[in-house]
């Protein structure tokens, strides 16, 4: 299974789509990202439990938003597997997800 590599690739693709303006996060995307970003600002490491808590409150989605939610689900599962999460590939994948969350949390709403 190549879950860390898949997570990293999907996070990188969403970062690129966002940077190129091909994907404008909607309010639900931004709320989820802001909730996780605020947690990350505390200096605590991201956990599967934290991701699942945000996902439990996420709104129904479609398109790129569903890709984001699926990415967060995969990341939560990765973080539950300590040995995989602590591997170099796992840390790189989580770092990419955190970069994506930062970009989304700091982005302007789609209608601006």
Supply the helix-strand structural class.
mainly alpha
What fraction strand?
A: under 5%
Q: Given the C-alpha coordinates, what overall shape results?
A: globular
Strand count, sense and barrel status of the largest sheet are:
none
How many domains, in number, for the residues? 1
Spans of at least 5 consecutive residues with low confidence: none
Q: What is the H-and-E element order?
A: HHHHHH
List how many beta strands DSSP finds.
0
Summarize the structure in short:
This protein has 112 residues and is mainly α. It has helices at 3-19, 27-41, 48-56, 63-80, 82-86, 88-105.
Walk me through the topology.
Elements: H1 3-19, H2 27-41, H3 48-56, H4 63-80, H5 82-86, H6 88-105
Helix pairs in contact: 1-4, 1-6, 2-3, 2-6, 3-4, 4-6
Structure description:
- The protein is an all-alpha fold and 112 residues long.
- It has one domain.
- Helices cover 73% and strands 0% of the residues.
- It has six helices and no strands.
- It is globular, with a radius of gyration of 13 Å.
- The N and C termini lie far apart (40 Å).
- 27% of the residues are buried.
- The model has no long low-confidence stretch (mean pLDDT 88).
Keywords:
112 residues; mainly alpha; single chain; globular; 6 helices
